[in-house]
Design brief:
The longest helix has about 50 residues. By secondary structure, the protein is mainly α. The chain is elongated. About 10% of the residues are buried. Helices cover about 90% and strands about 0% of the residues. The chain contains four helices and no strands.
């Protein structure tokens, strides 16, 4: 009986361990996206505060607008917002 239970548990655990690992990987990925979006928004705020609104507007015109990033983050998640930032940055520099 004990052997049967051990066999069932050992067969069930790899799937549970993989599921837990997937959730951990997803949360690490989400945390990276959150950081990327936060860093981007902080950089735009720094430019606005340091250089003034006129220069800030010219710089921001080359990148994704703060409001668009925030709206995307709220509606579609941080990783979608981070991808939007990366896509626009690649387009403006490429």
């Amino acid at each position: 009986m004990f052997l049967k239970i051990s066999l069932i548990v050992s067969l069930a655990l790899p799937g549970a361990a993989l599921h837990a690992q997937d959730n951990k990987s997803k949360s690490v990925f989400d945390a990276r996206c959150d950081k990327e979006v936060r860093d981007y928004l902080n950089a735009l705020e720094f430019i606005r505060n340091a250089a003034g609104p006129q220069i800030s507007s010219r710089v921001a015109a080359s990148y994704v607008d703060e409001k668009v990033v925030r709206d995307t983050q709220i509606k579609q998640g941080s990783c979608t917002a981070a991808q939007l930032i990366r896509d626009k940055t690649a387009t403006s520099h490429g």
